[in-house]
């Protein structure tokens, strides 16, 4: 039989322990996180996950601790690690802030617009030496919209084209730690680690160099 001390040590050291706030309240945001944990990588298909994200009635007070702003770059705020099956995060975009053309290596990318308005450019991912990205189309993402991408469908860039801040909710399944950034003009590709401004609402040290 496990001692009380062994149980305490287990809960204090297991990896998800820093992201357990959503088990402790009954807000609709916490319910969304719990449903995603039950669904992603289990029975969930793309449409089911999109529906869960779409059905969430965005209440800012429920996710406000995952909102941070930075004058020089959008912020990325990790909410939940989905028992290792996905990463869920907000991203907060000041006016004009942008993510360059990038891939989501091996992952499904879901984005739910929580607040504001973004513009997205969709490209084909180049395959083979010397290949360049090709613009497929642009679209405007308004509050409430949900999108899904995989690299074999499109890669993309996103920009807050409005004069107000924008907040987006992103789910990546399976999670990944580095991406590729594509230069449309030169054809150059660089590997960029994924940075987090906060994890579990705690500020993180910021790495040097180019990150996504
Ligand atoms: Fe992306």
From TrEMBL:
Cross-link for 3'-(S-cysteinyl)-tyrosine (Cys-Tyr), residue positions: 109-172
Enzymatic reactions: L-cysteine + O2 = 3-sulfino-L-alanine + H(+)
Group of enzyme by EC: oxidoreductase
UniProt EC number: 1.13.11.20
CDD domains assigned: cupin_CDO
Cofactors: Fe cation
Listed Gene3D superfamilies: Jelly Rolls (2.60.120.10)
Matches recorded under InterPro entries: CDO_1, RmlC-like_jellyroll, RmlC_Cupin_sf
UniProt remark on cofactor binding: Binds 1 Fe cation per subunit.
Residues reported to bind Fe cation: 102, 104, 156
A biological process term (GO) from this entry: taurine biosynthetic process
The name this protein goes by in its record: Cysteine dioxygenase
Entry's family note: Belongs to the cysteine dioxygenase family.
Keywords from the named record: Dioxygenase, Iron, Metal-binding, Oxidoreductase, Thioether bond
Pathway: Organosulfur biosynthesis; taurine biosynthesis; hypotaurine from L-cysteine: step 1/2
An example molecular function term from Gene Ontology annotations: ferrous iron binding
Organism: Oopsacas minuta
